[in-house]
Specification:
- The protein has one domain.
- It is built from 12 helices and no strands.
- Helix 5 crosses helix 10, helix 6 packs across helix 7 and helix 8 packs parallel to helix 10.
- The longest helix has 35 residues.
Length: 240
């Protein structure tokens, strides 16, 4: 009994220390972003572009680090970052830089979930969100692959929560290597303005894309439970 009690308090202490460190990191990061006025720049592609360009050589490293942060600790709009990268460095190089930061962040997110369990994940994303996706992925693990491809699912949260499930490292890494580049490069090439320009006929196409995106997000929100149940049923049959 004494050994079990000691082991329990060791886990509590370790989890508390990790939570304190992450909280301190988040607070420090937030104040740095506010102090440097970078927080306001995340809502504007042009402001973000100018900020990164002003960094010169360190711009690429900073950009990769920002993509890493948006996956793991800071709610930075990933689409704005990816588009800014494609405008600054071109769609291919910008896409590679975005992909580097996103893949690194995904692995770290999974590692945090695997190492520290539900308490930490619940702290970072909320208890209800954590329990909801843990329950879902436990029933339909292979749905994770398709969910990482589709834009209506919270990719970054799923990576963190996946670490709490019995999902293997191999499956997680392979899934990210196959799915992440699709979303990143589609956003990068479309956002660069090379495929669909931000003028003339391109404005009409962008209006249609934006409308479709809003409709898809609305449908995904309205029929969220039905979509989840569909994936669960489909992959239960596959696994059987």
């Amino acid at each position: 009994m004494a050994e079990n009690s000691l082991s329990f308090w060791k886990k509590v202490f370790r989890t508390s220390v990790v939570i304190l460190i992450i909280t301190a990191f988040l607070v420090l990061t937030y104040f740095i972003l506010v102090w440097t006025d970078l927080w306001d720049k995340f809502n504007s592609v042009e402001k973000l572009r100018l900020f990164i360009l002003d960094l010169g050589f360190w711009g690429r490293i900073t950009f990769v680090f920002l993509q890493f942060l948006q996956v793991t600790f800071v709610p930075i709009p990933s689409t704005i970052l990816t588009i800014a990268g494609s405008i600054i460095y071109g769609p291919f190089q910008g896409g590679l830089l975005s992909l580097s930061g996103i893949l690194l962040g995904s692995v770290v997110a999974f590692m945090l979930g695997r190492a520290f369990g539900r308490k930490l994940v619940s702290f970072m994303v909320g208890k209800d969100t954590c329990e909801k996706w843990v329950k879902f992925l436990s029933k339909a693990k292979y749905a994770f692959f398709f969910m990482m491809l589709l834009p209506m699912f919270p990719d970054d949260i799923l990576c963190l929560v996946a670490g709490v499930t019995d999902m293997s490292w191999q499956f997680f890494v392979v899934t990210n290597l196959l799915t992440r580049p699709v979303g990143v490069f589609v956003t990068s090439y479309l956002g660069s303005g090379e495929v669909i320009p931000y003028q003339g006929w391109g404005l009409v196409v962008w209006a249609i894309i934006l409308t479709m995106a809003i409709v898809v997000m609305w449908l995904a929100t309205k029929y969220e439970k039905q979509i989840e149940q569909f994936f669960v049923k489909m992959f239960k049959k596959k696994t059987k």
